[in-house]
What does this fold into?
Amino acid sequence: MFIFGNFLVALAKVIDVILTIYLWIVIISAVISWVNPDPYNPIVRFLRRMTEPILSRIRRLLPVTGMGVDFSPVVLILIIYFLQWFLVKSLIQLAVRI
It folds into this structure.
């Protein structure tokens, strides 16, 4: 059973790293959106391709319209933190108990 426990710890750490990398992608994308970036720049296109599918879903759920401020990156960052605190730590605690 210790092999399954080690697998869960490794899985939790991989998920944590992926969520951290995605967190930075969201932050960089939000900061770049404050200026008028070149939409044909490969970095800007990559950032938009990585963040826009999730941010557009969050925008549809937010009741804020017409304010001119996009709070969807903040909501996504909070979701990422929640997943890191809840999911990753729960997986590690489950692995320790096994």
Remarks:
- The radius of gyration is 17 Å.
- The helical segments are 2-32, 42-61, 72-97.
- The chain has three helices and no strands.
